[in-house]
Structure formats: structure tokens, C-alpha cells
Fold:
Amino acid sequence: MSVETTAPATERDQNLRTIIDATGAALEDNPDKGHALFKATGTGGDGVRSHIRIGGHTVLVDEPPALGGANEAPNPVEAALAGLLSCQVVTYRFWAAQLGIPLEDISVDVEGDLDVRGFFGFDSAVRPGFGEVRVKVTLSGPAPATDYERLSAAVDEHCPVLDLFRNTTPVTTTLVTA
Structure:
């Protein structure tokens, strides 16, 4: 899974700087404004398909036939990788603008290893999620490599979805029966 993006750096960076400055000013006056709630809702569909609503968007998630689906959309773990990939792009763009590092192009490849024995419960010693995830980021622009290394460190520290992958997040499940 990979993505490449290209846009005029100066206009994009100016727009992002405006967002960063306005957000910083708003949070300086009221730090509680920094808290946001994100939501997704969904229902099961044919086979193992999920129809998901996120804000004003509808997303379909499916599995390949080997896992009971029709392969009409990415599967849940591919969607998780896509979330990581897209968050990396966003975070690189914002932090390049924040640090004043010119960034012309970004390409991100993400892959993860998953052993299905954990999902199917065939081996209790195997976790059902990814055993390892690898992210390859390719940056281009006129800045020296040391600036892009500094940018990478800032992204690693501030990317929300990377944080989800790297750190335990409490999850509470409520079961409602009809």
C-alpha cells in the first residue's frame, strides 16, 4: 500500500501555517478546545462486509473470498494500514510547514505481517493483530538530508495513528442486544 502526493509547496505550506497559527492561538486562550471526539458507526452487510459512516462519508470494508467476503473493498487490516499511511502524509505536511522545511513530494509505503492463526484461534500464542508494521517514507525537496531527518523525528513523535500502533490505547466495548 503506497501513496504519492505532489502540490505547490509554498501555497500549501502557507495554508497549513495559517491553520497551525489559528489553532495555537485558540488553544492558548482555552486549552480544553484541543480535545476532539472522532466517531464512526457501521452495520454488517452481505457476507462479512461492513458499511461504515464516518462524518459525511460512507466507507465499505470487505474481505477476500478466502475469508468469506467478495473482495469489493479493503479489508479491516488494510484499512488500518491506510489510516497509518494517510496520517503520515498529513503529519509530514503539517510538520514540514511547522518547522519551515520545504517538502515537495512525499511517497509512503506501509506493510504489515499478520498470522491468521491468531484471528482463527488456532494458536493462543499468536496475537490476532499485526506482528510487525513497516513504514517507508520517501521525501523530496531542496532541504538538506539533516532537515528531513529532523522532520521524520517530529512526525514519529506527533503522528496520531502511529501513536495508536505503537502504544496501548484503552478500549471499552459495550454489548447491546436487541
About this structure: Strands lie at 2-6, 41-44, 50-54, 57-61, 105-114, 130-140. The mean pLDDT is 94. The helical segments are 9-29, 76-99, 116-120, 145-158, 160-166.
